[in-house]
């Protein structure tokens, strides 16, 4: 499985959520609404979720193992950082 596209929609409301991301897998399957969150230990991703009847939020799409989660997170956060750098460069010009 390869991530073939990453689309970042930056959130500028000043809260902990910094962006909402969509990823495409193998040019065939898209996962929307992955959130980039700033936590106490730095940035991390939160997979798409919905509120269950008991009030808890449950992921509706997620990696099966930690290695895949780490790979997805690394790729998303790299793209997020690149997006921030590009915006900064555009502001300078």
Descriptive report:
By secondary structure, this protein is of the alpha+beta class. Helices cover 29% and strands 42% of the residues. The chain contains 1 helix and 6 strands, in the order E-E-E-E-E-E-H. A hairpin with a 3-residue loop joins strand 2 (17-25) and strand 3 (29-39). The N and C termini lie far apart (38 Å).
Instruction: Count all strands and give the number.
Output: 6
Strand portion, in percent? 35-45%
Question: Biggest sheet, in brief?
Answer: 4 strands, antiparallel
**What is the CA-atom radius of gyration, in angstroms?**
14 Å
Structural class: alpha+beta
The largest beta-sheet arranges its strands as 1-2-3-4
Portion of residues within helices: 25-40%
Shape: globular
In the predicted model, the low-confidence regions spanning at least 5 consecutive residues are none
List SSEs in N-to-C order.
Answer: EEEEEEH
Q: What labels would you give this structure?
A:
globular; two-stranded antiparallel ribbon; 93 residues; four-stranded antiparallel β-sheet; alpha+beta; 29% helix
Give the helices and strands, then pairings.
Blueprint: E1 3-10, E2 17-25, E3 29-39, E4 42-46, E5 49-51, E6 57-59, H1 66-92
Antiparallel strand pairs: 1-2, 2-3, 3-4, 5-6
